[in-house]
Amino acid sequence: MALINYLSRIQFDHGALGRLPGELAALGVSRPLLVTDPGVVAAGLAERLKAALGGAPAAAFEETPSNPTEAAARRALAGFREAGCDGVVALGGGSAIDLGKAVALLASHPGRLADYTVGAGGAAKIGRVAPMVAIPTTAGTGSEVGRAASLTLESGAKAACVSLNLVPSVALCDPELTLSLPAAMTAATGIDALCHGIEAYLSNRVNPPAAAIALDCVRRAGRWLSRAVSHGDDREARWQMLMAALEGGLTFQKGLGAVHAASHPLGALGLHHGTLNGVLLPAVLRFNASHCEAQYQHLRQALGLAPGADLADWAAGLRDALGLPNGLLAMGVDEAVLPEIAEAAARDHLNETNPRPASAADFRAILADAMVG
């Protein structure tokens, strides 16, 4: 039995930010909490949001860390409650949007974030959360339409809360907000979107609509990512990459795979999620090759590659061309942590949808392959 859900409202185009007041009114939100991060504030995007609102929000939390944490969510929640907020506006990349989801969850549910993670059977416990508008400023995570929030818990473990109730009520996708994104961050977030498309397409779940969207995500990102990195002021490239990121988020319904299963515990070390995915992708493509030749051929076609092209070699070449690290070693990962990371990756819920079953021993081999590209 295939379960297929697409449940969010999306406003997409240059200037979409201007629709924020109307969307908040439609949700019945009059006192929103703004959740964002220092980089977004420094880029002037928070001021643009306030101008669109016609004034400051009821409260603001501008300290989202690069890898969101339960501790940060609790600080933001305190501001939400103190100001009597009735909704959340998350402005930023996946970190700010995931933190916003955590605030919306904790504002409407008792207990700790750990009570609602996948490992704690959280999906069954998550009911309706506070209304939320997600406004991405990077083109990568797709969190604005995703049902997951990944955070580092107070225990130090990185975990995900997953529920259709965590899909933001509204996503405002405005490519103009990505024009000022530096080239390095454009590359790191853009390859994340590409990984979402590739992994979702290869996932072992049956969801033909999501598979079609995933393949279009791969086609779109494969064509436009390098252009967005090298010509950040190209409005068409920014539009296309934000659409690829959105499509990547929509394909989460089909599941992901070993790239994300490994990047989650590595992310708990403080490493950038999208960069990790780009570094891990070649090794995982090599690992999965024996189990999905037909799907690999479809990916080659979408990317405009020759029928016999090696996808892992292509992914490594793209990583290098984008200026990303050529391996985990270059990111500062100590080989001594790999056994522990491999065990955590094998337990990660996204490993269940990888096309080739992967044990902890398999992940040790994948991680060793990814140490030096």
Show the helix and strand layout.
Blueprint (H helix, E strand, L loop, with lengths): L8 E4 L7 H8 L4 E4 L2 H5 L2 H9 L5 E3 L8 H13 L4 E6 L1 H13 L25 E5 L11 E5 L5 E5 L7 E4 L9 H20 L5 H23 L4 H16 L7 H10 L5 H16 L4 H11 L7 H11 L16 H10 L12 H12 L2
Parallel strand pairs: 1-8, 2-3, 2-4, 4-5, 5-8
Antiparallel strand pairs: 6-7
Helix pairs in contact: 4-5, 6-7, 6-8, 6-10, 7-8, 7-11, 9-10, 9-13, 10-12, 10-14, 13-14
CATH fold-level name of the largest domain? Dehydroquinate synthase-like, alpha domain
CATH class of the largest domain: Mainly Alpha
Unreliable stretches: none
Overall shape = globular
Structural class of the secondary elements?
alpha/beta
Largest beta-sheet details: 6 strands, parallel
Give the percentage of residues in beta strands: 5-15%
Strand and helix order: EHEHHEHEHEEEEHHHHHHHHH
- CATH architecture group name of the largest domain: Up-down Bundle
Average pLDDT confidence is 94
Number of E strands: 8
Strands ordered across the widest β-sheet: 1-8-5-4-2-3
CATH superfamily annotation of the largest domain: Dehydroquinate synthase-like - alpha domain
Task: Characterize the structure shown.
The chain is of the alpha/beta class. It has 2 domains: 9-177, Rossmann fold, CATH 3.40.50.1970; 182-371, Dehydroquinate synthase-like - alpha domain (Dehydroquinate synthase-like, alpha domain, Up-down Bundle), CATH 1.20.1090.10. The chain is 47% helix and 10% strand. The chain contains 14 helices and 8 strands. The protein has helices at 20-27, 38-42, 45-53, 70-82, 94-106, 183-202, 208-230, 235-250, 258-267, 273-288, 293-303, 311-321, 338-347, 360-371; strands at residues 9-12, 32-35, 59-61, 87-92, 132-136, 148-152, 158-162, 170-173. A 6-stranded parallel beta sheet has the order 1-8-5-4-2-3, sandwiched between helices. Strands 6-7 form a two-stranded antiparallel ribbon. Helix 10 (273-288) packs across helix 14. It is globular and about 55 Å long. The N and C termini lie far apart (40 Å). The mean pLDDT is 94.
